[in-house]
Design brief:
This protein is an alpha/beta fold. It folds into 2 domains: 5-183, NAD(P)-binding Rossmann-like Domain (Rossmann fold); 190-275, N-(1-d-carboxylethyl)-l-norvaline Dehydrogenase, domain 2, CATH 1.10.1040.10. 47% of the residues lie in helices and 14% in strands.
Length: 285
């Protein structure tokens, strides 16, 4: 089945990336966000990304990418999601926000619409329980930047139906993605491991054992990673790292998930990584 119209809730870095990827693979997309400025920023960033693609991809043209952008609608009106076939939620990593969104979507979207939560750490079962369709709720944890990352963690809850899992895998295949199926628990696989690595790397810098550059060089040059843990943190966004660690700490109650003090200080100071122009490293505008 070819899904024709996809809803994307949240116009941040992840939501914008999901919308761009969907439009590039021929889907009609409706992006909803309560903040008009977030929608404007997402449109500008997607347009910039598609224009860059037109310059570098000899098999396509500027007209092709204009058509891709034309497949995306941007709105603050949740009611426009009533006709979507599949919905991907990408709101901030806060339970207080997500628990309000899913019941709202449940009332608006038609009964057969599948809900996919693109969350870094919040248990999908908890989100499914806020709807009247828990069998149609699945986790789809995309990696950043979405258009360039081929692998997606698909998270199965105890109530998720086989039909819903098949729908998620079909849509991801249409997007050019590969799905790895995991069971539901806070942080899943990737972030349960990655967040600990990033947090400990921040602790190393905090304790003045090494600089951020030196920490990342060890992982890149010795361990063969394409990107060190602190550059990865900057890419994800230090505010998202902090929120994710807090979710993991609340979920497991283990002190190993307590955020490093330096991380909290940097977020308080607005040093969020690439999105703010400076985190552990500096970035051109």
């Amino acid at each position: 089945m070819k899904y024709q119209k996809i809803g994307v809730v949240g116009a941040g870095v992840m939501g914008g990336g999901v919308a761009e990827n969907l439009a590039a693979t021929g889907h009609q997309v409706i992006v909803v966000d309560i903040a008009p400025e977030a929608l404007r920023a997402a449109r500008i960033q997607i347009d910039r990304n598609l224009r860059c693609m037109a310059l570098w991809d000899s098999a396509s043209s500027a007209a092709d990418h204009a058509a891709m952008l034309g497949r995306i609608g941007f709105t603050t009106d949740y009611g426009q999601l009533s006709t979507v076939d599949f919905l991907i939620e990408n709101s901030t990593e806060r339970w207080s926000v997500k628990r309000e969104i899913f019941p709202r979507l449940d009332l608006i979207c038609h009964p057969e619409c599948v809900f996919a939560a693109n969350t870094s750490a919040i248990a999908i079962t908890r989100l499914a329980g806020t709807t009247t369709r828990p069998d149609k709720v699945v986790g789809m944890h995309f990696m950043n930047p979405v258009p360039r990352k081929k692998l997606v963690e698909v998270v199965r809850t105890p109530l998720c139906s086989e039909a819903t899992l098949l729908a998620a895998k079909e849509l991801l295949a249409q997007m050019g993605k590969e799905a790895i199926l995991v069971n539901d628990m806070a942080g899943f696989v990737s972030n349960r491991v990655l967040m600990l690595t990033i947090n400990e790397a921040i602790g190393v810098v905090q304790d003045k054992v090494a600089t951020a550059k030196e920490v990342d060089e060890i992982f890149v040059k010795c361990a063969g990673h394409k990107m060190g843990p602190l550059a990865t943190a900057d890419l994800i966004g230090l505010d998202t790292i902090l929120l994710t660690l807090n979710v993991l700490y609340e979920s497991f109650g283990h002190s190993k998930y307590l955020p490093a003090g330096l991380l909290t200080q940097m977020v308080d100071a607005g040093l969020l990584g690439r999105k703010s122009g400076r985190g552990f490293f500096e970035y051109a505008g």
